[in-house]
Amino acid sequence: MEYLSSLNDKQVKAVKHIDGPLLVLAGAGSGKTRVITVRIVHLIAEHDVLPHNILAVTFTNKAAGEMRERITAMLIGRKLKSAPLISTFHSLCVRILRQDIEELQEGYTRSFTIYDTDDSLKVIKGAIKDLGFDTKQIAPRQVLNAISGSKNRGEDHELFSSRVDYADEKRAAIGRIFKAYEERLNNANALDFDDLLIKTVRLLRKSPETRAKYNDRFKYILVDEYQDTNPLQFALVKYLTEQQQNICVVGDDAQSIYGFRMADIRNILDFEKHFPNAKTVMLEQNYRSTQTILDAADSVISNNRGRKEKKLWTDNPDGDQLIYFQAFDADSEAKFVASQIYDHRRLNPKDKVAVLYRTNAQSRVFEEALRRMRIGYNMVGGFSFYERAEIRDIVAYLKLSLNTFDDIALSRVINTPARGLGKATLEELERVRKDLDCSYWEAIETVLSEDFEGTFSVTPRAVKSLKLFRGIVNGLIAKIGECSKTERPVSDVVIAAIEQTGYSYMLKSDNSEESEARLANLEELVNAAVDYDRQESDGLRDFIDHAALSSDTDKFDRNAPVTLMTVHSAKGLEFPVVFLVGLEDGIFPHARSINDPLELEEERRLAYVAITRAEKKLFITHSTRRRVYGAETTAEPSQFLNELPLDLIKDVSRGNSWLSFAKSSTTLENKRAAAALRGETHAKPKSTYTGKTYNSNEAIAEFFKSKSGKDSNEDRSKESKPKKSGIEKLREFAGKDRKEPVAAPAGRFLPGAHVRHAKYGKGLVLRREGSGDNVKLTVSFPGFGQKKLIEKFAKLETA
DNA sequence: AAGTAAATTTTTTTT
DNA sequence: AAATTTACTT
Questions:
Q1: What is the pTM of this model?
Q2: Is A352 considered catalytic here?
Q3: pLDDT mean for each 10 residues of chain A (799 residues)
Q4: Exposure string over A421-443, b if 16+ CB within 10 A, otherwise e
Q5: Among A89, A105, A139, A761, which residue is least crowded by beta carbons within 10 Å?
Q6: Which bases of strand C sit closer than 7 A to a protein CB?
Q7: Rounded to an integer, what distance in angstroms lies between the CA atom of residue A252 and that of residue A226?
């Protein structure tokens, strides 16, 4: 049991708890993955549990892969007949459904197709058109979000529609689209990502036998990142552990960052309620970061109201200060990051570096800067291999061959490569499909069948093309059958799909560089297929499932010197050096979250996750100018910067920065103001607040008021979740405020104007009240918060 | 029917 | 600014 010696007492406690529910509340960097992996090894080695009977569930393939690797390494040398199943929620569901979905009797067969987000959007677009709506009035993306949200809360389209207020036309429309969407998926024998969970839960609910079967199979279940489970995932866990109750969940409420996917933090907070007799272990010793980094993280997260008090501590040294850089624009920010990486790696070549940003769109400038300095990097997320058009085309051929009801796959490839099937033919086909209420494939069969010759308005040329297309797909179907018993059931079919569809001919006859790159990509697909065949091959279907469920996130390479990724993707990872970039209001926290206190708290947890990724060095940067949709805008420093302990930060900006102002402003007045905003009577002695933190109702009220002047034309009323009435009122208030005409003489400081103040420096005018000599201005000074000034006395200058 | 030019939209975060 | 969709020419 030497593997136990490397654990602390609490960790050992978690590992040694065998039977019954166990909750491990594990702070950032407290060795949570270690506990899970050692626990699994312990179950096998000491308690003779068959690996086959163990299930560990994670959220990402990346996490699953990592865990699998570690466990395999620890179990090396033991002769085991089976391996524990380590899987994401989604692939677990696919595994169950591929076996038992027919029990559900909802018309689905085992050869169902998985629709990814892109496919779903296409279905929605089709449904919108079919119902006579316009995609301009109803954004498909918005519909998908509404549908997905509803599904993840465990609601179906009927429940959705029953909740429609008749005055709300848009919601009523979405309800109808929802229904049509479900019908289309059902007809196509297709499941979207959410359906994978829904159908599995429904199956387990419906069939006690199936439930018993999996309870029997999975005697010990572990769930990682439990704070990110949504109601469906919770239900799944509940059913799977119904009999044996051997459930171990690990998570940290402070790191719950998937609220937008309906993750419910209460799942972890109420674990003891959901699973009586649960034992709880708290892991609070951090092994990862320096004290300074932990202080910074704690200082930020302590601004959240809804959280379990947890005190993370470490034996690690204080370490370096945080390094702060304010850039002039996004390019100079990237340049700074690249040169710092260069310098750091010259002295510490072994240190892995991560650049973390809020949104994928930010990655570009960093890629360019790193390339310019010839620093090798690895980017996670963004554009996945399987998202490339040529890969998707070939995969679509394969999906269609496995399931000819897959309308989306069919419409993707019917004229790819071009074979002379144009708009007219496709429209005729669509009509036939609608009239007969069948799939495209059946429509093609009908159009081509001799019984109906002359019935349809298709040109002879089109008939020829359709026959060609049908021949190709039938050829592939035959090929799949032939190859299924051979040594190469996947790669031979993939090669056939590339060759027989005319795809490789198309790319080869076009001698552009792009075509060559695409051919190379297809070769990579073949390589992946060959690899798949070489491993214990589960056949073509699994290969395709894998393509659907893998996002490039799991392509994370721990050996890459520099990794670029979103903060979300970085969860669960750690790096000696971390750059947290783009700390600006509107980016981090994201503009979409700024108006909702709960979403803002999630952004703060996200910031907490970002900070706690760092082991030794943390760089934080922001830029004063940034392009949004190609237009240059000025950017305010992130409100989270205000929440950091400023005395732990070293400013390396050129010239005067937001931080230099913030640091010099430690007047009593500001401290009092900050304390009052937090609803405290006395400022904490340790506090270094200088500005406003937006976490009290008053502050939020002021925030709304101030924003009203800024983007006055924006319609932000639509499709908002039910919120606290107080917030609604504030919005209304902000709305009224907005309409008030601002009758100020020209040349004065109107809302939106950039001004300079002798003491506070640059600021933005948010509000203007009164007239004549009594004009009062509300001005936001980065680092000082908002100030009310009498225009006459303030001696403001235009900046 | 296919290729090109013009217009329009896009950005949260992920399986 | 880039990518996607639509409109227009051949």
A1: 0.81
A2: no
A3: 83 94 94 93 93 93 87 84 92 96 94 91 88 82 90 89 78 89 94 95 96 96 95 95 94 93 91 94 95 95 82 93 94 95 95 95 92 90 80 93 93 88 84 89 90 82 90 95 90 94 86 82 91 82 88 74 93 95 93 89 96 97 89 90 93 90 64 49 33 31 31 31 30 29 41 65 60 60 58 69
A4: beeebeebbbebbeeeebbbbeb
A5: A105
A6: 1-2, 6
A7: 8
